[in-house]
Amino acid sequence: MHRIPVGVLGASGYAGRELCTLIADHPGLDLAFATANERRGERLALPGGSVTFVATDDAPINKAELVFSSLPHGASAEWVARVRAAGPRVVDLSSDLRPGHSAQSVPYGLTELNRTTLKDAPLIANPGCYPTAILLALAPLVRRGLVKPGATVVADAASGVTGAGNSPRAEMMFGEVTENFRAYAVGNEHRHLPEMRDTISRLKGDFDLLFTPHLLPVARGILATLTVPVTSITDDLLSPWREDYANEPFVELAADPPAIRDVVRRNVVRIAVRRVAGVRQPTLLVFSAIDNLVKGAAGQAIQNANVSLGLTESMGLPA
Amino acid sequence: MHRIPVGVLGASGYAGRELCTLIADHPGLDLAFATANERRGERLALPGGSVTFVATDDAPINKAELVFSSLPHGASAEWVARVRAAGPRVVDLSSDLRPGHSAQSVPYGLTELNRTTLKDAPLIANPGCYPTAILLALAPLVRRGLVKPGATVVADAASGVTGAGNSPRAEMMFGEVTENFRAYAVGNEHRHLPEMRDTISRLKGDFDLLFTPHLLPVARGILATLTVPVTSITDDLLSPWREDYANEPFVELAADPPAIRDVVRRNVVRIAVRRVAGVRQPTLLVFSAIDNLVKGAAGQAIQNANVSLGLTESMGLPA
Amino acid sequence: MHRIPVGVLGASGYAGRELCTLIADHPGLDLAFATANERRGERLALPGGSVTFVATDDAPINKAELVFSSLPHGASAEWVARVRAAGPRVVDLSSDLRPGHSAQSVPYGLTELNRTTLKDAPLIANPGCYPTAILLALAPLVRRGLVKPGATVVADAASGVTGAGNSPRAEMMFGEVTENFRAYAVGNEHRHLPEMRDTISRLKGDFDLLFTPHLLPVARGILATLTVPVTSITDDLLSPWREDYANEPFVELAADPPAIRDVVRRNVVRIAVRRVAGVRQPTLLVFSAIDNLVKGAAGQAIQNANVSLGLTESMGLPA
Amino acid sequence: MHRIPVGVLGASGYAGRELCTLIADHPGLDLAFATANERRGERLALPGGSVTFVATDDAPINKAELVFSSLPHGASAEWVARVRAAGPRVVDLSSDLRPGHSAQSVPYGLTELNRTTLKDAPLIANPGCYPTAILLALAPLVRRGLVKPGATVVADAASGVTGAGNSPRAEMMFGEVTENFRAYAVGNEHRHLPEMRDTISRLKGDFDLLFTPHLLPVARGILATLTVPVTSITDDLLSPWREDYANEPFVELAADPPAIRDVVRRNVVRIAVRRVAGVRQPTLLVFSAIDNLVKGAAGQAIQNANVSLGLTESMGLPA
Question: Does residue B170 belong to the interface with chain C, where contact is any CB pair within 8 Å?
């Protein structure tokens, strides 16, 4: 089979390396180049071979039909424009072009919700990791108008350290993270809120989201615990999710609350729903788990590239 | 100084061993005996010496003026009655005599809230670890009627594994817990809810508590993230806590959200408060961290014993 | 392609589950059954499906052409005999039939060393995890007579907890293993020594092995640090390994000492060699890393099954 | 009691902070100042209070009778000279003045071995963490001439990450260290070797030391596994250690191999000895565990300060 040549900008970060690894295992894609300015000349071992990093300025952009940008937030938009001008499609993993961050209206690559707008799209803004976990879990309720109007949905979530990238920072050293746990970006101010609010608004949700992230002493994985005031509760709790995700290869519905371990190294979101006893306001607990580097970043980027390029959506992805 | 002889029933568990260690370092207490049926005859190393476990049936109860029971839930009440009948005071760390678990009305040893009823008390029910973190954080709002009537307070909390005791269980093995995170006892059904509801009710709170615990890959520590709908927000966010806890040696108010690491091996609760942006319902985030084995169990038990026995409340406790 | 039906006895342990997972991803094998007495009736999720455990007594042995036994040491031999009597080939992952443990002379499945005796073998004793790491690292020196006669080779090794299986044991609980490290089975008494001595003897090695295992706070992986007194040191340190392993798909030679992370979830052994400064006795340090559940257990078992069944040796294995 | 004023240079590193904490709990010392150039103006919480970092240039050196230098290797020697010129005594925790690193002959603060030279000493070079664990374990054999002449003693050791300091480095990030294990500084080239060789030489040892350190996924602790070829083995294995360390408050002899957990947060070295079966060369395994930040750094520095200042040697130290 002909493999479509693709490139990765910013390939030395956690998401960038995960992309290169997934591409190496992908039967329909071929890694044409991978850039990493500070590590240029170094080799990255990959399944069945390796790739040598080049400087981003030296990337042979025209050799690729599609380019993934895993450049840092703020630095990515300029390169996305440059690549687009040269021809190749782009899936941008940074927040630069996501709803609420850009004046452009770029298709938002939450694949299960926006698949039709992603088909053949030349440019896709890949979602943040937390929004992926939270929005896929909430969407079936929001679409049905089941979230109580005016209410606050509490989204407490916890992520492994790779969500923060691999630039050396004092607070991410092993000695600081092991045997520890803390909230960060508190007060509903996290960079991922605009894209979540935008999607909720598009789905006609009339509620507020209160998102508080926490840092876990694990390498990978996100677990979101969502408290959702609802207008009513049906006996068959999971039916909205079962209906919406009946044919989705990357959504798992579970009877028991998911653990991070259930989803690590897999391109899935795993969702469970529970009713709540002893409270006057009808309320559902919705739990959602993903691997932040796979379904929350590189895996979903591949999924979006597959959709854009007309490949089978699940091709090359571990489910 | 004369040291008051005390004993520990059920001393081989995590809380029991912590108790023995704290007693060994306590200038006013002397460890008269420590029981552990399955490990009887074994020695437990302690600061400045050791103790040899005896069978609970062989405990020289009358040598103690006060006995701590760290026996399992369900097995403790009978021994508490036996010790009381023999004379010594008791601090019971099990849930057997806590509000909602017993028909008896036993003073509830959340020291900072109930100090007057604990003075000279012959029997004290020591609080659960989660209730300690959550109730001390909520009390100043509840007392002032600031929690919105009829609302749901969301209490998402995460604990280290020692909260589950040290009996071998498949799901608590290192290979299952490392690099993992999950909720448990979901649906608002945890054993600690009755004592929390009782205290909220005594403080005239008219709201529902939705408590969801999670298991962290750490040995010790609890972090509770509380979302509290309030009737109003004052500029000086921390003032209710500052007023109520002005003279409390074991309550720390912090500007930044506390980390588990801030409180490990200390008999303190550390609390921070933040207002929330972007939601219509005025809401506060209250964060609360404790060491589940110290302020959440053995340390608070010593604190209660100090109060009961007329010793300085902070004696022998690491703040 | 026709898939050869295989079964797994003792499939609920760590190695057994890894076997089932690898078989599910194997293009030439089909999982006919998986047994687990205490979990019979439970389903195990696998790539692309699941399997339901049956009791070992109920295993449809005759449906399989080859059976893997991952039953506990001591319990495996009897079942191996029963399966063999019924017809299917067996790869036994227990120690029961390994050299030094059995009067039988069963081909020892250290594939890279014994490939010719494994071809078409109806019964193979799969090596222990530590011997796999240590023997593959030492063999090129031993074969060449380069280890100093009469000397002691010091093999200090450290393993993740899955090497000890998943039966609940107090000393393997998360609270006991996290932030800890210790030696065990000290004094050169580990169960894996007989098979190591047997292989060394077959390779005409005339030296003593001093093996001290340690327990790491990680789930998977073994690192062995071998101190080898040698008769001489050549400039091209790695040449013995390069010559012996030139065409081995599952042996990696590295310039830098391997980390456990380099080999996790892969069916490889990664070896590095360094000369030692400042000692009178010419000495090499040989480092060897494997994933104890893959190359150290289930992966090598598949590799041996491939050889026995005449499949491509690397089929279905992650390198 | 009068408390002797002391200062700490370089107080924001792991060892420096441990020093400040130990001094705050020390009944005979008073923390006059703590310096940290990059964090000047920040407060460090301490038991019973706090200290505000000042720039090293602004340290009120003359207010102290003794100064601990926890400045980086290479930067410390100059400041030690400056402090000495101004009057105060110095305990230097860097390697700058240790044997093999300096032309000066500075008393080497391995307290148990060199106590007489440390009494009233105005300047003490505090040992490295690995040498503390290894030399205290070997000394009783070396003094008695029991190590086989000309032999190689293999010292494989593993340390927690705090041994590497708290400057942000890519390879010490949580995401790189968790679930990993590797050797470093291999080939017998570690910076701690000169001081170990010097002490062995002073004790008339005629053997070579082969030291290979490893990095553990834990915050604190060192375990050294020493393989020692000996001239003979007596029945009472531990007698040399028992004789030499009979009155040592900070040396523990154990029947079972020590775990890191046994010594964390304590100023002790814990040693166990085992004979080895199945090798021709009579050999002992000696295991040694310390907390690298306490007995391996700050605790031993306090111990040395106590000796220098004429205080009780164990004052203020957790045993």
Answer: yes
CB A31 within 8 A of CB A55: no
Domains of chain D in start order, with CATH, are: 4-127+296-309 (3.40.50.720), 129-292 (3.30.360.10)
Q: Residue A287: helix, strand or coil by DSSP?
A: strand
Cβ of D260 within 8 Å of Cβ of C188? The answer is no
Strand order in the sheet with B66-69: B29-34, B4-9, B66-69, B89-92, B123-125
Helix, strand, coil in percent for chain C, rounding step 5: 30, 25, 45
Could A178 and D217 be called an inter-chain contact, meaning their C-beta atoms sit closer than 8 Å?
Answer: yes
Tell me the torsion sign for CA atoms D212, D217, D219, D220: negative
Taking the alpha carbons of A121, A125, A126, A130 in that order, is the dihedral positive or negative? negative
D173/A162 CB distance under 8 A? no
Assess C172–B contact: CB distance below 8 Å, yes or no: yes
Most A CBs within 10 A among D167, D174, D179, hence the mutation to make, goes to D174
B178 touches chain D (CB under 8 A): yes
Whether pLDDT at C316 is above 70: yes
CA distance D117 to D121: 7
A142: its two tokens: 């929001």
Write down the pLDDT at residue B253: 97
- The residue assigned the tokens 């078989």 is C23
Mean pLDDT of the region A188-192: 90
ipTM of predicted complex: 0.96
**Min distance A260 CA to chain B CA atoms (Å):** 5
What pLDDT does residue D2 have?
86
* Cβ neighbours of D37 (radius 10 Å): 15
pLDDT in tens, D280-316: 999 999 999 999 999 999 999 999 999 999 999 999 9
* Separation CA C190–CA C95 (nearest Å): 12
What is the C-alpha radius of gyration for chain A, rounded to an integer number of angstroms?
Answer: 19
Closest chain C CA to residue B167? C170
What is the residue-wise DSSP string for C107-155? PB--HHHHHHHHTT-SEEEPPPHHHHHHHHHHHHHHHTT-BPTT-EEEE
- CA-only gyration radius of chain D, Å: 19
With contact defined as beta carbons under 8 Å apart, do D188 and D197 qualify?
A: no
In Å, what is the CA distance from B164 to each residue of C171, C254, D262? 15, 43, 22
Provide the pLDDT for residue C1: 61
Give how far A247 is from chain C: nearest CA, Å.
15
Structure letter (DSSP) for residue C74:
T
Which positions of chain B have pLDDT values less than 50? Answer: none
C42-83 pLDDT per residue, tens: 999 998 899 999 999 999 999 999 999 999 999 999 999 999
Whether chain B has a CB inside 8 Å of the CB on A274: the answer is yes
**What's the gap in Å between the CA of C181 and the closest CA on chain D?**
6
Q: Is D179 in the B-facing interface, judged by CB distances under 8 Å? A: yes
C207, two tokens: 């030296």
Own/partner pairs, D111-116, CB within 8 angstroms, 24+ separation: D111/D250, D111/D300, D111/D303, D111/D304, D111/D307, D111/D313, D112/D136, D112/D139, D112/D245, D112/D248, D112/D250, D112/D251, D113/D139, D113/D199, D113/D203, D115/D307, D115/D313
Report pLDDT digits (tens) over A279-306. Answer: 999 999 999 999 999 999 999 999 999 9
pLDDT at D107 over 70: yes
